[in-house]
């Protein structure tokens, strides 16, 4: 039984330890950056959800050495249910989000009596330490179980998904850490904007008096002002006595540049996440052509990279030597399903060179096959020709092109003279008259 499974089986422990404190980071914008307030930044929240949900919904196949899909327990583990308490979509969502935020995400690989994987149990990132034995250099994953204390796990039993920012190739670093300055500026800008709107957009100011106020008069004026302008009364008209004047502290709204700074923050967050701004719903400079191109780039540059990260870990930790020649493959094709032209051109080119059969194309599109004839491979000649007949078609074309031109053996027809033509006409008239 997995160690995290034993934790989840006790309701008192699950609720107590499922939300653990994360290490905060102090930015130069004088703000604390942690998981909780980072998720309140709309651009970061959107980017995190986009990447993790796109990866979570893709088919994750197990294939053999011939690139054929293999159905079985491992395929069910990756595509249906990694453990009895969650489906594959939520498991992948959890793993990718933790890796982006904290730099690393972990899951214990539970095995049966002969070492075959039967479940994947997510582990809390903040409770995991990766240590190396100083005697033999062996790597150990040390998990702080609230009930059992430190539990030592071998690398083969931990599905470890690191972020791409890594110094040693083992541990990743999360965006909350290396993007603390950018996130901190966004948090500070949000706080400043909230403070300004809290005061109804009116900047702070000072009260001046031509004379000197006693302590009692000062306290009375302060309390009176707070009563008239505090809370929901901000911006209301106040009555000032005895020569007291209100002088606002002038704030140049263009100097603050709230919109510009917040928009720049969206671009910076997009760069950290490897996403085009349009995926964070910033369409300031978007056109149809560049949005289409950015969709292709995000699939090949960002999503494919995360998919490879997951595939390689699964190949080593889940398939390993027990499934020789097999590998896992996260199919990115469904990301392009919305682009009909791209799909049509792709399938046409694949079928024309004999790379895909009609039934394989229909399977990709979620359509049923149409019998054995749909399993034939075709090569584009003048028409689509079955691949197993392409040799005879080519041979026939060669024979046709190299066949010598036939020359006529009959003598050219002699031109009749006028006398012969007159005689011929007379004979025809005699035959027609019956004489």
From TrEMBL:
Signal peptide segment: none
Top-rank lineage group of the source organism: Bacteria
InterPro entries xref list: Phage/GTA_portal, Portal_HK97
Protein's name in the database: Phage portal protein
Species: Candidatus Dojkabacteria bacterium
């Amino acid at each position: 039984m997995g160690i995290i499974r034993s934790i989840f089986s006790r309701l008192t422990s699950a609720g107590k330890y499922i939300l653990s404190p994360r290490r905060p980071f102090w930015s130069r914008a004088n703000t604390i950056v942690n998981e909780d307030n980072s998720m309140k930044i709309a651009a970061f929240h959107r980017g995190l959800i986009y990447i993790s949900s796109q990866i979570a919904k893709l088919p994750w196949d197990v294939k053999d050495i011939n690139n054929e899909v293999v159905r079985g327990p491992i395929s069910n583990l990756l595509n249906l249910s990694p453990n009895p308490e969650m489906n594959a979509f939520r498991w992948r969502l959890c793993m990718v989000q933790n890796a982006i935020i904290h730099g690393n995400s972990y899951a214990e690989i539970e095995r049966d009596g002969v070492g075959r994987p039967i479940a994947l149990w997510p582990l809390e990132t903040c409770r995991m330490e990766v240590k190396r034995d100083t005697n033999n250099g062996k790597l150990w994953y040390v998990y702080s179980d609230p009930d059992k204390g430190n539990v030592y796990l071998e690398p083969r039993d931990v599905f470890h998904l690191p972020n791409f920012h890594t110094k040693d190739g083992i541990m990743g670093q999360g965006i909350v850490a290396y993007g603390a300055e950018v996130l901190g500026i966004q948090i500070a800008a949000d706080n400043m904007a909230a403070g300004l709107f809290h005061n109804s957009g009116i900047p702070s100011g000072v009260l001046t008096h031509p004379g000197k106020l006693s302590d009692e008069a000062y306290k009375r004026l302060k309390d009176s002002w707070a009563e008239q302008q505090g809370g929901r009364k901000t911006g209301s008209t106040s009555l000032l006595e005895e020569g007291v004047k209100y002088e606002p502290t002038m704030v140049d709204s263009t100097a603050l540049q709230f919109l510009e700074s917040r928009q720049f923050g969206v671009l910076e967050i997009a760069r950290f996440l490897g996403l085009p701004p349009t995926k964070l719903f910033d369409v300031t400079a978007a056109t149809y052509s560049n949005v289409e191109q950015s969709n292709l780039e995000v699939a090949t540059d960002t999503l494919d990279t995360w998919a490879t990260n997951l595939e390689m870990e699964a190949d080593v930790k889940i398939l390993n030597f027990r499934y020789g020649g097999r590998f896992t493959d996260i199919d990115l094709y469904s990301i392009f399903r919305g682009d009909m032209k791209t799909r049509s051109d792709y399938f046409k080119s694949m079928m024309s060179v004999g790379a895909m059969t009609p039934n394989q194309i229909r399977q990709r599109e979620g359509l049923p096959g149409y019998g054995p004839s749909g399993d034939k491979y075709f090569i584009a000649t003048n028409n689509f020709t079955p691949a197993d007949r392409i040799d005879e078609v080519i041979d026939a074309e060669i024979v046709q092109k190299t066949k010598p031109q036939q020359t006529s053996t009959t003598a050219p027809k002699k031109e009749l003279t006028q006398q012969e033509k007159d005689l011929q006409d007379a004979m025809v008239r005699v035959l027609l008259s019956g004489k």
